[in-house]
Amino acid sequence: MNEVRYALTLHCPNRPGIVAAVACALFDNGGDIRNAHQHDDGETRMFFARLEFTLPDADGENELRERLAAVAGEFSMQWALRRLDVRQRVLIMVSRFDHCLADLLYRWRIGELPMDIVGIVANYPRDEYRHHDFGEIPFDYLPVTSANKLEQEAALMRIVDARRVDLVVLARYMQILSDDLSRGLSGRCINIHHSFLPGFKGAKPYHQAYARGVKLIGATAHYVTSDLDEGPIIEQDVERVSHIDSADVLVRKGRDIERRVLSRAVAWHLAARVMVNAGKTVVFPD
């Protein structure tokens, strides 16, 4: 038997019977639930759930979708069904600082991040990254200026559409996306912010932190929205520092935090573990 593994994510106004209805739809279609997580947001009265299950084969997927659509109509439910053996198509964007890019490439190559990297877009020439082995990954150089920003964003969207990109990762891509581009990539663009938001914004955040004598530094991975650095937060981490640490030490420690925070956020998105709940997220555990 060639079982196929799926992840079903859903959210709707909370009321009795949701879990029972979804479970019956899966059972009636031969589904076998392997694990399940749910969350009831007491403030918004919204119910969130993620169910991982198998079907005997992929032939039953269309029928299951019909059953789930009927359940969704009854409960005013938003839902998504993802085959977990189908790898997400990911586009990575980068500027001069390439430590997050290097980390993503390493985790991809060892199989820790099950994705297909369909391109790397940079606003610096390829020679800037000559110490990286991109293999057969397409590389696109799209330098951005105030005069050509909209033109380059249009070129980026053509790449996204042509390569059927599921997720865009801003791996320290230091250009602000326009409102239109942010809306076009809503829910499928993750940024790593070099600070524990809310915190020190603008240029040289670690130097600002050093000048203020902070005792914690951090990083934040979030979905991109038209509100700069205000998108729903997926993951954060911090590290303690002290008065003996120079600004350069803070930068080095900050790079380590950024790498691990971004990789976690990408991994959870790939596994359909992140759901947007208004201005925040629900992140179901591994």
Order of helices and strands: EHEEHEEHEEHEHEHEEHEE
Strand arrangement, major sheet? 7-6-5-8-9-10-11
Q: For the record, what CATH class of the largest domain applies?
A: Alpha Beta
CATH topology of the largest domain: Rossmann fold
How many strands appear in the DSSP assignment? 13
Named at the architecture level, the CATH assignment of the largest domain is 3-Layer(aba) Sandwich
The dominant shape is globular
How many helices?
A: 7
Number of self-contained structural domains: 2
**Approximate strand percentage:** 25-35%
Low-confidence stretches: none
The portion of residues assigned to helices is: 25-40%
**Structural Rg:** 21 Å
Briefly note the structural class of the backbone.
alpha/beta
Main sheet properties: 7 strands, mixed
**Fourth-level CATH superfamily of the largest domain:** Formyl transferase, N-terminal domain
Mean pLDDT comes to: 93
Distance between the termini: 26 Å
Could you explain how this protein is built, in words?
There is one protein chain. The chain is of the alpha/beta class. 31% of the residues lie in helices and 30% in strands. The strands form three sheets. The chain has a seven-stranded mixed sheet, covered by helices on one side. The protein is globular. The relative contact order is 0.13. The model has no long low-confidence stretch (mean pLDDT 93).
